[in-house]
Amino acid sequence: MTLLEIDLKKLEHNYHSLRKILNPKSKMIGVIKANAYGAVSESIAEKLVELGTEALAVAYVKEGIKLRQFGIKVPLLVFYPQIENFRDIILHNLEPVLYSKRSWEMFKKAVKEEKKSAYPIHIKYNTGLNRIGFQTDEVVWVLEQMKKSYFKVKSVFTHLGQTETPKPNKETENQILLFEQIMQKHNQALKQKPEYHLLNTSGVFNYPNYHLDWVRIGIGFYGFANHPEWNDALKPISQLKTRITQIHEIKSGETVGYNCGWKAFKNTRIAVLPLGHADGFSRQYGHGKGWVLINGQKAHVVGNVCMDMVMVDIGDIPCNEESEVVVIGDGIRADELAENAGTISYELLASLGNRIPRILIN
Ligand SMILES: *Cc1c(COP(=O)(O)O)cnc(C)c1O
């Protein structure tokens, strides 16, 4: 059976490692979108709050409702709220990120309809990523709106495009400069200074002078920081393990898998594993791009990954049907496996399907 083991002790280690390098005045937003990057959002949220994480964030409203229903009480940001869910945000005491005049007006309408005032919100500016955010020249409009009492603006932020790239990096410097101008305008216009943030995990390591009031940490809690040196401070919290379902003796010249995806050039042994692209072990790991560890030895994926099963070449590796197989974990880092297949740890982790049981280790 395939299992994802999630070690909360390692999460605790990562929390303390990150807290240690963080400016003591800065607070943490723990990012637990996409089921805590493929782990299990409720238990991770609970643990992060217990450790002292001051706020949490999800991508979508539904994810936030799930955590509120589980009993998570800390401020809970919704990074990418959709207008059709604005009422649900208020009903579940979530804090939306507003990113455009339209989102601002529509949320204001929802707040009025629910007869609320000073509703907590966060404002996001686009400083170059060109994903979501108010344009920098809309700051005057935003400041004008802030004089009214519908919202309590809890923070103002932007998102950088490449915090892991070695310094100096012109695009990042440019984004930071634009954000500094926005901060200045907000500070001048308002009696009460809002709180500011701009960094994700790699940014916390790479830009220690810009921790500001908050940082937004996702992948770091799960054990990765997008750079070998920074990774050293962290421990991957998840291990994906499975067991061999069947072993075949394969003769030279035989093929394995759909579309004869692989052909043996000598006699060998093939192990069939109960894991496939429906579980997030996608076809990009086929044809030798991916591998697993059996008895500490590498066995490469042969041919095409199927929906529910994958075949690996075990040659002379000592093992039998039932032997344990490590897919991600000690000896196989998710970031290395992902990179070899042309993707990143974020995608590999967040894609792990809900057919795989999650086991917590305390
Ligand atoms: C996902 C996300 C983060 C977390 O980034 P990591 O690289 O995982 O630390 C931070 N900010 C925003 C806006 C995000 O969407």
The total of beta strands comes to 20
Please work out how many helical segments DSSP would assign.
13
Span of the ends, CA to CA: 21 Å
In CATH's first tier, which class of the largest domain applies? Alpha Beta
Low-confidence segments, ≥5 residues, pLDDT <50? none
**Overall helicity:** 25-40%
Which range does the strand content fall in?
15-25%
| CATH architectural category of the largest domain | Alpha-Beta Barrel
Return the average pLDDT rounded to an integer: 97
Total of domains: 2
The CATH fourth-level homologous superfamily of the largest domain:
Alanine racemase
How can the largest sheet be summarized?
9 strands, parallel
CATH topology of the largest domain: TIM Barrel
- Shape designation: elongated
Radius of gyration: 23 Å
| Ligands | pyridoxal-5'-phosphate
Which class do the helix and strand fractions yield? alpha/beta
SSE topology sketch:
Blueprint: E1 3-7, H1 8-21, E2 27-31, H2 33-38, H3 41-51, E3 55-58, H4 61-70, E4 76-78, H5 86-91, E5 95-98, H6 101-113, E6 119-126, E7 134-135, H7 139-145, E8 151-158, H8 170-189, E9 195-197, H9 201-206, E10 214-217, H10 219-222, H11 228-231, E11 238-243, E12 246-250, E13 255-256, E14 262-263, E15 268-273, E16 291-294, E17 297-300, E18 310-313, E19 324-328, H12 334-340, H13 345-350, E20 358-361
Parallel strand pairs: 1-20, 2-3, 2-10, 3-4, 4-5, 5-6, 6-7, 6-8, 8-9
Antiparallel strand pairs: 1-11, 11-19, 12-15, 13-14, 15-18, 16-17, 16-19
Helix pairs in contact: 1-3
This protein binds pyridoxal-5'-phosphate (PLP).
Residues 31, 33, 79, 159, 200-201, 216-220 line the site of pyridoxal-5'-phosphate.
